[in-house]
Design brief:
Layout lengths: L6 E7 L5 H12 L2 E4 H10 L3 H11 L6 H15 L3 E5 L5 H11 L5 E6 L2 H10 L9 H24 L3 E5 L4 H12 L1
Parallel strand pairs: 1-3, 1-4, 2-3, 4-5
Helix pairs in contact: 1-8, 2-3, 2-4, 4-5
The structure holds uridine-5'-diphosphate (UDP) and magnesium ion.
Length: 186
């Protein structure tokens, strides 16, 4: 992967804040490779192993799966891609995720895109999207919001302290968000 020279951008924001949507657009315009930690985990769950089933259970409860699982999936995906410019979406979800990534992958992100959107808007988006995700039901959504506030916001605060956070309000249209996102990558 050329780890020493790799560029990593973390994309964080509440569930439904537009991480996946915007990452697809960044890939098209700016030549990054995109990995969604959640998508990698859902793929892992489909493997049907005991560890996969345990992860599915945690995801259904809106909990964060063990760092070792997520970081190993990310590390493997990064290696296999042969790329050196990575957008990592929905990760790190807590400070332990972040520490493990640093340990295993060997370097930190260049910056964090932080997609900020009110919970009532997120809730509507999640209930309206029809991706068939097991965790897009109101009960799990409430748990995901709580996990996000309790465990992911501290990651954003951590990077804010390092002056690495690019804060974008995402309760507007996809195109309006992408305009602001583009300005950061240009
Ligand atoms: N998840 C996790 N670690 C990660 C990313 C995701 O444990 O690094 C789990 C967690 O249970 C989360 C679920 O996968 O609620 C879905 O994550 P995703 O990023 O796909 O969705 P979001 O909640 O941001 O819409
Ligand atoms: Mg996503």
């Amino acid at each position: 992967m050329g780890e020493a020279s790799a560029t990593v951008v973390f994309v964080l924001g509440g569930p439904g804040s537009g991480k996946g949507t915007q990452c697809a657009k960044i890939v098209d315009s700016f030549g990054y490779v995109h990995f969604s930690a959640g998508d990698l985990l859902r793929q892992f769950v489909r493997s049907g192993t005991k560890e996969g089933n345990e992860c599915a259970e945690m995801m259904q409860q809106g909990k964060i799966v063990p760092s070792s699982v997520t970081v190993n999936l990310l590390k493997q995906a990064m290696k296999d891609s042969g790329s050196s410019k990575f957008l990592i979406d929905g990760f790190p979800r807590n400070l332990e995720n972040r520490d493990t990534f640093l340990e295993v992958v060997g370097h930190d992100c260049s910056f964090v895109l932080f997609f900020d959107c009110p919970e009532d808007v997120l809730e509507k988006r999640l209930l309206n999207r029809a991706e068939g995700r097991a965790d897009d039901n109101i009960e799990t959504i409430k748990k995901r919001f709580k996990t996000y506030q309790d465990q992911t916001m501290p990651v954003i605060e951590h990077y804010r302290g390092m002056d690495k956070v690019k804060h974008i309000k995402t309760d507007v249209s996809i195109d309006e968000v992408f305009e602001k996102v583009s300005a950061i990558f240009k």
